[in-house]
């Protein structure tokens, strides 16, 4: 009986230890399995990063540009700083900011899509006219600012900065139907008409009254393709009938054109062929007759 009791106690003790050992072995197994799972996940992440970092499919190698009609596309891509950059290292806002600082660009947007799709969209600032100094052409924007002409633009008004040689001021004849000015006034007006000045330096921008007057003249006379500008006499153009016509500057070209045509009609009626006619001051028009 005593032996049976000892055996029962041993069995009971063994069963108790077994009940404790089983949960512990389960916990240890779970921990070991979780560690291997974590290592597997880490290895997978490292491999994925390696693949992403070394695969050309995640680099911005082809960058399309929309909205660029005059700007060089290669220059746009270069200024964006995106060429050859990894998709994770590309900052579309930073690229758009760089592009917006380019001359002639009004707005710029950059969009990115996984894995390497990028698109640059621009809105260029169209020129209002061209400004020519010698053989160099510039574009004029709405504020009168000048920027190098990036292409040959057909149909734009061309304003030529004209610097004539110094010549003695001629004596002026009064316009038909106008009273002759005094000798002093005539000499002064003649100097203005022949533009005897030495303002030959390149300008930083076109004065607003010059730009407004040029555009208004073009609107009133669409056949005018080319104007000339001298600081002392303003805008002029070569009349197809054989003389130069001076109009000054400002937004009163409509009245000046009316005065001009009246003067032309009276001169032709009298058989006078002018070398030039000036209505820069519409209240005191004058002309110079051909010899």
Written overview of the protein:
This protein has 291 residues and is an alpha/beta fold. It has helices at residues 2-54, 73-80, 92-100, 183-193, 208-220, 253-269; strands spanning 65-66, 105-113, 117-124, 129-133, 136-140, 146-148, 157-161, 173-174, 226-230, 234-239, 243-248, 274-278, 286-289. The chain has six helices and 13 strands.
Summarize the structure.
By secondary structure, this protein is α/β, with parallel strands linked by helices.
Q: Output mean pLDDT.
A: 79
Classify the oligomer. Answer: single chain
How many runs of DSSP E, i.e. beta strands?
13
Globular, elongated, flat, extended or rod-shaped: what is the shape? Answer: rod-shaped
Low-confidence stretches: 165-171, 176-201
Strand order of the largest sheet: 6-5-4-7-9-10-11-12-13-8
Describe the main β-sheet briefly.
Answer: 10 strands, mixed
| Helix percentage range | 25-40%
Strand content: 15-25%
Alpha-carbon distance between the termini? 158 Å
Number of helices: 6
Radius of gyration: 41 Å
Structural class: alpha/beta
In N-to-C order, the SSE pattern is HEHHEEEEEEEHHEEEHEE
């Amino acid at each position: 009986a005593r032996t049976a009791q000892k055996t029962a106690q041993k069995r009971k003790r063994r069963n108790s230890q077994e009940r404790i050992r089983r949960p512990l072995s389960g916990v240890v197994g779970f921990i070991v399995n979780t560690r291997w799972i974590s290592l597997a996940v880490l290895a997978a992440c490292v491999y994925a990063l390696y693949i992403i970092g070394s695969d050309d499919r995640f680099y911005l190698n082809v960058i399309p540009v929309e909205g660029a009609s005059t700007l060089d596309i290669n220059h746009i891509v270069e200024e964006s700083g995106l060429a050859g950059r990894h998709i994770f290292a590309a900052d579309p806002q930073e690229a758009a900011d760089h592009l917006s600082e380019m001359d002639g660009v009004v707005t710029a947007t950059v969009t990115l899509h996984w894995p390497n799709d990028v698109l640059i969209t621009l809105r260029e600032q169209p020129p209002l006219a061209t400004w020519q100094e010698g053989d160099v052409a510039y574009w004029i924007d709405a504020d009168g600012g000048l920027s190098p002409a990036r292409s040959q633009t057909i149909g734009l008004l061309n304003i030529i900065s004209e610097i004539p040689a110094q010549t003695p001021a001629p004596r002026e004849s009064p316009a038909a139907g106008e009273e002759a000015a005094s000798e002093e006034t005539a000499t002064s007006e003649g100097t203005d008409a022949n533009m005897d000045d030495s303002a030959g330096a390149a300008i930083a921008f076109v004065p607003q009254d010059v730009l407004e007057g040029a555009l208004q003249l073009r609107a009133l006379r669409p056949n005018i393709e080319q104007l000339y500008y001298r600081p002392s006499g303003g805008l002029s153009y070569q009349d197809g009938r054989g003389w130069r016509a001076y109009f000054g500057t400002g937004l009163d070209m409509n009245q000046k054109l009316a005065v001009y045509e009246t003067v032309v009609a009276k001169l032709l009626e009298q058989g006078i062929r002018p070398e030039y006619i000036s209505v820069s001051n519409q209240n005191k028009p004058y002309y110079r007759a051909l010899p």
